[in-house]
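Hello forum,

I keep getting stuck at the same step: I have a sequence, I want structure tokens, and every attempt I make locally crashes halfway through. Rather than fight my setup again tonight, could one of you with a working pipeline run this one for me? It's a single chain of 172 residues.
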Amino acid sequence: MDFFDAVRERRSIRAFSSAPVETEKTKRILTAANDAPSAGNLQAYEIFHVTSRSCLDALARASFGQQFVAQVHLALVFCAHPARASAKYGQRGATLYSVQDATIACTYAQLAATSLGLATVWVGAFNDDLVRKAIGVGDDLLPVAILPIGYPAEHPEATPRRPLQDLVHPLD
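Reply #2:
Ran it on my machine without issues. Output:
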């Protein structure tokens, strides 16, 4: 799928079919995330590849009961790794650049999944401590996004977007 088609076709899907995501597609998604730009090329983030039913259930609970998280066979959890960025960029690296790095990587994964005919939804509403517990990490990592990935069981229409003239502010 063309990049612009992937951007245009991407939807937030909250109903998934029971079909698992193929290993080759998963690898391509993870490779795209790994190719994402990052501050100082430090890749100040970690990606947790979750397929365990018990972990997916725990992530759904950590996401305030968003059960579609447990409906998939694969979820990626993107965590900022503040220490990786702070070593080079200090406090700004820890509090901003690492979060941006994780966010960009998740965006690349989301668009890669769409281009492969898969569906995703960006989950940002969750309890950080419960996500950490579900994936078995400590306070040194900050959960930024959970990305459930699967085949869609729904096909919603595009949501309205703001007109560019309301969104873009030219400074000539």
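DSSP finds seven helices and four strands in the chain. If your local run keeps crashing, start a new thread with the error log.
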